[in-house]
Specification:
Layout: H1 10-16, E1 25-27, E2 33-38, E3 46-50, E4 60-65, E5 68-73, H2 80-90, E6 100-105, E7 108-113, E8 125-127, E9 140-143, E10 151-152, E11 156-162, E12 168-171, E13 182-188, E14 195-202, E15 205-212, H3 217-236, E16 242-247, E17 250-255, E18 262-269, E19 275-282, H4 292-295, E20 296-300, H5 304-309, E21 317-318, E22 323-327, E23 330-335, E24 346-349, E25 358-359, E26 366-369, E27 374-381, E28 386-391
Parallel strand pairs: 2-12
Antiparallel strand pairs: 1-23, 2-22, 3-7, 3-9, 4-5, 4-8, 6-7, 10-21, 11-12, 11-20, 13-17, 13-19, 14-15, 14-18, 16-17, 20-22, 23-28, 24-25, 24-26, 27-28
Length: 394
């Protein structure tokens, strides 16, 4: 037997050994695997040179970088726009500027690095201000280069849209990606024979709260808001559910965990003539600005080439600008120290420290998912703190 048979890269282990690894995904059916790119938060460096509002006539203006110079000569009646257009046409023809895209608008000449995560020394860009009266501005960094946060295996993935190259972009969700949903109910003309009945749909459950008329509209609304708040705290816990508050003629219902979604429907019963009107003040069911479910694509899956590049790293990840592979339908192994039971609900953490990790109970900034989307299978590897979940489809 050759010596090579005793040694395996991470990809060899995953494909040849019956061992579960974080991010291992068994796809089921069509469209079970998807690909995209990790670009969220990624930015290209931008160097800006301002073009003077008043321009010297019949004068040479130049911009230099990397030992080469782009020079243009203004005419006898030069304007800012004309100088900007001349530089916009000339700079791309000079070889040392090949690493940049050039744009001009409103007196600003911008050189944008074509590569992400690459920083060029600003001091390397110069203009011939010693030769002009109305000078080009000193080159300055307008935007710093920045990298996208690595995406670890076995994390929830949301879509952030289509990037400039036409590829779908993904990231691991955090609470700041969503607004907390708010519903406002406005009441009018409540009278002695009226009563209120609210039906709340949240986390796969439906509850009803009934409140009779008491003294006047203000007292009745205060009582109803208190009854709602009692239900919310008892059913969902204070700090991780819904808050009900009354202000004049309004009762507002506010989710405490951004990314979750709920609905409330209230009727005024009786012959007193009272009315109620509902408005989705912030977000709504299926609204991607407030709903994790609306943007969720699946989980980041283990990939051999990425893992092989990260040997020695406990948390292999897709780096900035790298293609990401995810699972949308099938069985996946994810980080878990909770030993979730079969068919129990899945929660996704949007908290910064645990973003994109999966849980089986509520917590601050955790989002509940219906079992029609995901559920735990009950398979647990306690020694490695991983567990298997089933993604049924998104």
């Amino acid at each position: 037997m050759s010596a090579g048979a005793f040694f395996y890269g991470a990809g060899n282990v995953q494909s040849k050994q019956a061992i579960a690894f974080l991010g291992t995904f068994e796809a089921i059916g069509d469209d079970a695997i998807f690909e995209g790119i990790n670009t969220d938060g990624q930015a290209k460096q931008v160097i800006r040179i301002t073009v003077p509002g008043t321009v010297d006539n019949s004068t040479v203006y130049s911009v230099s970088y990397g030992g080469q110079t782009a020079s243009v000569t203004t005419d006898a009646s030069a304007t800012q726009a004309e100088l900007g257009a001349l530089l916009l046409a000339e700079i791309p023809t000079v070889g040392s500027f090949g690493a940049f895209d050039v744009a001009y608008a409103g007196g600003n000449l911008d050189l944008t690095a074509r590569r992400h995560n690459t920083t060029y020394p600003v001091a390397g860009f110069t203009v011939n201000s010693a030769d002009t009266t109305n000078d080009l501005g000193t080159p300055a960094e307008q935007t710093s280069a920045s990298a996208a946060t690595p995406i670890e295996f076995g994390r929830a993935l949301i879509t952030t849209g289509i990037d400039a190259s036409g590829r779908e972009a993904f990231k691991v969700p955090v609470a700041a990606d969503f607004s907390a949903q708010v519903i406002t109910e406005t009441y009018a003309s409540l009278a002695a024979t009226d009563s209120l009945s609210s039906t709340i749909s949240f986390r796969g459950q439906v509850f009803t709260v009934d409140t009779p008329f008491d003294t006047n509209q203000a007292t009745t609304l205060a009582n109803h808001a208190a009854n709602l708040e009692t239900l919310y705290n008892a059913s969902f816990g204070a700090g991780t559910g819904i808050v009900a508050a009354v202000a004049t003629n309004d009762i507002t219902h506010t989710l405490e965990n951004p990314g979750e979604e709920f609905d409330v429907a209230t009727t005024v019963n009786g012959s007193g003539g009272g009315t109620v009107a509902k408005v989705y003040t912030t977000g709504a069911p299926d609204d991607p600005t407030s709903s994790l479910r609306a943007k969720l694509r699946g989980m980041s899956k283990r990939r051999h080439d990425i893992e092989d590049q990260n040997l020695g790293n406990d948390d292999p990840a897709y780096g900035s600008g790298r293609m990401v592979e995810g699972g949308a339908r099938g069985f996946g192994w994810v980080s878990s120290a909770q030993s979730p039971t079969a068919h129990s609900n899945v929660w996704v953490s949007l908290a910064t420290a645990t973003k994109g990790q999966f849980y089986n109970d509520v917590g601050t900034d955790y989002v509940w998912l219906p079992k029609s989307i995901m559920e735990w299978t009950g398979r647990v590897d306690s020694a490695n703190s991983i567990a298997q979940l089933r993604i049924k489809g998104l």
